Amino acid sequence: MTLPHPISGRLFGSPVPPASGWPDDPASPGTPIARTHAEVLTLAADCDLTELDARVSVCRACPRLVAWREDVASDKRASFAGEPYWGRPVPGWGDPDPWLVVLGLAPAAHGGNRTGRVFTGDRSGEWLFAALHRAGLAELPTSAHSGDGQRLTGARILAAVRCAPPANKPTPAERDACAPWLAAELALLPRARVVLCLGGFAWDVALRQLATAGLPVPRPRPVFGHGAVATLGEFTLLGSYHPSQQNTFTGKLTAEMLDEVFVAARELGGPHVR
Ligand code: SF4
Fold first, then answer.
1. How far apart are the C-alpha atoms of 196 and 104, rounded to whole Å?
2. What is the pLDDT of residue 274?
3. Shortest-distance Cα residue to atom 3 of ligand 1
4. What is the CA(249)–ligand 1 centre distance, in A?
5. Is 149:140 a contact under the CB 8 Å cutoff?
6. Which residues in the chain come in under a pLDDT of 70?
7. Which residues of 69-89 are buried (b: 16+ CB within 10 A; e: fewer)?
8. Looking at residue 261, what is its pLDDT?
9. What is the pTM of this model?
10. Given ligand 1 and candidates 174, 175, 176, which is best to mutate, with the most ligand atoms within 8 Å of its CB?
11. Distances in whole angstroms, Cα of residue 29 to Cα of each of 20, 117, 166, 181, 217
């Protein structure tokens, strides 16, 4: 069954077929598909950022996550029953030459897995994009759906794991399978200096990635916390509590705390820090 995209009105199946006209779909009919962890390693190498986004968006290397993301896309939450669901991996999104990388855990089942854009269409994204807008990094204070006119300048948002996982918990094997996509993307962002890690999972993945890339990890190993800072070569990791409902409803993370993190990020690696 096809349903209308909430903004463009065009009809799509769920999951959305690659290169079928979804706003910002990076895939083309010829985009190669990784079906194994070894193929992720191969396909993540030797391509530019546009092609990397395309290859990520059609990856099928983790059977459990492929099944889950597609099941969610097919069953849908009742409140979104009239919409098509993306149901594919969610590539990085934002400025192609950023100074700031915002790293999350994974797409939300009914957020990024529905809209096709990271942190878009859920409560966490409402908090994050509002803060990005207040920090002068996002065109709009909201991020409702792909094709909504949102644009980032100076920042790019990535997920450590590109497919929505059950209970927001990828397995260590899935985390490691997806790592080559993240490593390749970081290597293709030469101006990036600050990696803002939303939550302990992202912090851990960022430390692993930069260590694997040969950057020296401080001893003792830096511990995640809100406002924690760690320097590895030319990168600075900055920790923030994740803007999950669990944290924002309880007041563990406030809008002011999030604003302070973006001020700190700019001081650590903004365009003036060269
Ligand atoms: Fe591919 Fe990553 Fe999704 Fe696994 S989690 S299927 S490696 S995009």
1. 9
2. 55
3. 163
4. 30
5. yes
6. 273-274
7. bbebbeebeeeeeebbbbbbb
8. 98
9. 0.97
10. 174
11. 9, 20, 29, 20, 41
The full 3-state SS of the chain, as one line of letters, equals CCEECCCCCCEECCCCCCCCCCCCCCCCCCCCCCCCHHHHHHHHCCCCHHHHHHHHHCCCCCHHHHHHHHHHHHHCCHHHCCCCCCCCCCCCEECCCCCEEEEECCCCCCCHHHHCCCCCCCHHHHHHHHHHHHCCCECCCCCCCCCCCCCECCEEEEECCCCCCHHHCCCHHHHHHHHHHHHHHHHCCCCCCEEEEECHHHHHHHHHHHHHCCCCCCCCCCCCCCCCEEEECCEEEEEECCCCHHHHHCCCCCHHHHHHHHHHHHHHHCCCCC
Structural domains of the chain in order of their starting residue, each with its CATH number? 3-269 (3.40.470.10)
From 69, 163, 171, 182, the mutation candidate for ligand 1 (largest count of ligand atoms within 8 A of CB) is 163
Chain segment 63-72, per-residue pLDDT in tens: 999 999 999 9
Nearest to 102 by CA among 239, 270, 274, 5: 239
First to last CA, the chain: 52
* Residue corresponding to tokens 């009239």: 82
pLDDT at 271: 83
Strands 155-159 and 100-104: parallel
Instruction: Give the pLDDT score at 46.
Output: 86
pLDDT value, residue 269: 86
Cβ < 6 Å from ligand 1: which residues? 40, 56, 59-62, 65-66, 89, 161-163, 174, 177-178, 181
**What distance in Å separates the CA atoms of residue 23 and residue 21, rounded to the nearest whole number?**
6
